[in-house]
């Protein structure tokens, strides 16, 4: 936990609560959060665009768009999509480490190790 | 025509996932199995890829708006992933029907409570975006259980984590939903890879669904920050009722097998 922040209280009817209710962002995102957002958006946009292209090509059926070509396109799209959250976790770990928030950086590293372990063991869900 | 229907299904799942942080599997799996006649073993990995897409599409906006709590997500992910590993190890040992019944009753209880409270104006606490979290040990324990249930019963963690963060850790509803959205992508991605390596991921089925999910998630993320919290709670309650129904059916089926 960040040392500088005091434990919060349950606030009832405070300005902060009003801000939340009024859809005001709770905290302005810093550089790390902006990068995390971009990583996720990049994954979503690029993979979504590739999946959409595969759907269009399948419907239009030009001669060169063979099943093999479409499979490669979809495979690449799925790979980008699946890598995005893991890349987000890596960026989070680096960002938190650079902020010297070691507890969170360690947690991010631990999640990556556990994910690798889980995949090695044959994760089922 | 089928692609269009799959895109519409994906849009609904993506919007629902973005609104209440549940991923959208609750829509995709029944739609594929009952509506398109896809076997469960092929529907689940496609649904998981949709969860990843929903997470990426919605969480990108939430993180940039300062709604998702990256630190809380990271901490709870440790417990969730550990729970999922423990659940995976217990898969052949634990009585899944009993867990399904217990979780079904729990989901029903939470849904009823949400519906009863949805009309009541509740104070949305100003939980910390960085710093000390209330009842963190309970949050970690609950996330561990959510991960375990995910592995044992195939339910996503969102329906457990959003109420857990809101009512146990006192995280504001929108932030709980946005943080859950951020978290579900990581575990979903790991699961998808495993299914893909086993050859169960049908990409031609996933393609139109993912396109729809991404569109729905972006729309849902815009809607979530504007929708009144009582409405969001009612949506989550309906999702929990559907989860409860599925779990009670699953548990009951083991007790009284169909002929």
Protein model, in words:
The complex is a heterodimer of chains A (125) and B (259). Chain A has helices at residues 15-21, 31-60, 67-98, 102-121. Chain A is built from 4 helices and no strands. Chain A is elongated and about 55 Å long. Chain A has a domain at 38-121. In chain A, 71% of the residues lie in helices and 0% in strands. Chain A is mostly helical. Chain B has one domain. The longest helix of chain B has 27 residues, at 229-255. The radius of gyration of chain B is 17 Å and the shape is globular. In chain B, helix 2 runs antiparallel to helix 3, helix 5 packs antiparallel against helix 10 (229-255) and helix 7 (158-168) runs antiparallel to helix 8. Chain B is 78% helix and 0% strand. Chain B has helices at residues 2-20, 25-35, 40-64, 70-89, 96-118, 136-153, 158-168, 173-197, 203-224, 229-255. Chain B has 259 residues and is mostly helical. Chain B starts with a helix and ends with a helix. Classes of the chains: A mainly alpha (125), B mainly alpha (259). At the A-B interface, helix 1, helix 2, helix 3 and helix 4 of A face helix 3, helix 4, helix 8 and helix 9 of B.
